[in-house]
Design goal:
InterPro entries: 4Fe4S_Fe-S-bd, 4Fe4S_Fe_S_CS, Helical_ferredxn, Sulphite_reductase_A
Protein name: Anaerobic sulfite reductase subunit AsrA
Organism: Desulfocucumis palustris
Radius of gyration: 22 Å
Strand content: 15-25%
Number of domains: 2
Pfam families: Fer4_22
Strand order of the largest sheet: 3-2-6-7-8-9-1-10
Order of helices and strands: EHEEEEEHHEHEEHEHHEEHHH
Number of helices: 10
Distance between the termini: 56 Å
Keywords: Iron, Iron-sulfur, Metal-binding
Shape: globular
């Protein structure tokens, strides 16, 4: 069912939903950007639709809502431990189609990878409802069409901001609430059909690519800051930390904290050993995982083409261009056979 709502009506819906849910959406934070005088669009809890940024892409993804940057897994003493709860409220996330597809990738890793379920992720993930924000036009760095993630299913509400109000395609039990505040309307779903940025995914990758000189180029440019993987909606690596309290060293908490194959220390081992110290090798590992290794296991690519990694890289390294370069190398190798 589709409904038309003005801003006051939509806020009425949010007010009712907020009684049993925490609502998150992309919000523009003035002056909080990486550079002086710039703004930042990131996910925050909201109370009104006027807080939502509909026109700009968020620099960071909503994955931190169900996979927190820092998450306490348990509190411990010398004799026992306790697992913290996540609260009774549900979670509503306003996000783009590519981000809904990104959650599908995270589900594969945390819920269906190797026959084990990450109960911490599952507990938060089961609370989530998606309110999908329609992309009126493609952002410059997006390549979702190439990755097949320009369309989204599995949402509760699909929203088009237009004419000072909102057209909403509503599914499931939320239809009753929207009918209470809005009027019936006609709505056909629209998704991005063409991006300015396009990539070509190689059907397969052989060993000839792994030793190619392009990775030395990336080694000279990448500074291993990890901004690409922090902004990525599908990166899921973490490390573990045990925190002991100063007032009682026999008590503390175990936390998991985001980590990344691109950041120094991620592969550190006892004795000071480590894998992939070269930054170009890390770039190769990340790229192959996104467009090859994940696909071998789950049948589709890990990257959703949101372009955030290109947006935030301080060295202007383009992941989209890196994919195209690997594809060109594979096509060249076939021609030379």
């Amino acid at each position: 069912m589709a409904y038309w709502l003005d801003m006051d009506s939509f806020n009425g819906i949010l007010k009712e939903l907020s009684a049993d849910n925490v609502v998150y959406a992309p919000v523009k934070m003035t002056g909080k950007g990486a550079f002086s005088g710039t703004d930042l669009v990131a996910y925050r809890e909201i109370s009104g639709v006027e807080q939502i940024e509909f026109k700009e892409k968020s620099r960071f993804s909503p994955k931190e809502i169900v996979f927190p940057i820092t998450q306490t897994l348990l509190y411990f003493t010398e004799e026992e431990y306790a697992v913290p709860g996540t609260g009774e409220k549900g979670i509503i996330v306003f996000c783009r189609p590519c981000d809904v597809n990104a959650f599908k990738r995270l589900d594969e890793i945390f819920l269906r990878n190797g026959g084990r379920v990450d109960s911490y992720y599952r507990e938060l993930r089961e609370k989530v409802r998606f309110f999908v924000i329609e992309c009126a036009e493609s952002f410059d760095s997006c390549f979702c069409v190439s990755m097949g993630t320009n369309r989204a299913d599995g949402y509760d509400v699909f929203i088009r901001a237009a004419g000072g109000g909102f057209l909403c395609d509503v599914r499931g039990d939320l239809a009753t609430l929207f009918e209470k505040f809005g009027g019936p309307a006609e709505m056909s779903l629209r998704f991005i059909e063409e991006n300015k940025t396009k990539v070509s995914i190689p059907e397969s990758v052989d060993q000839s690519v792994f030793g190619h000189g392009i990775w030395r180029e990336y080694a000279s440019r990448c500074i291993a800051c990890g901004r690409c993987t922090v902004s990525c909606p599908t990166c899921s690596c973490f490390t573990m930390q045990d925190i002991f309290y100063e007032d009682n060293p026999n008590r503390g908490e175990r936390r998991r904290v985001w980590a990344s194959c691109m950041i120094d220390g991620f592969t550190a081992m006892a004795g000071g050993h480590g894998f992939r110290e070269d930054h170009g090798d890390r770039m190769r590992f990340k790229l192959m995982h996104k467009i090859s290794d994940f696909r071998k296991r789950f049948g589709y690519n890990m990257c959703v083409g949101c372009g955030r990694c290109d947006d935030v890289c301080p060295e202007y390294i383009s992941f989209a261009r890196a994919i195209n370069r690997v594809d060109a190398l594979m096509k060249e190798a076939v021609e030379n056979v």
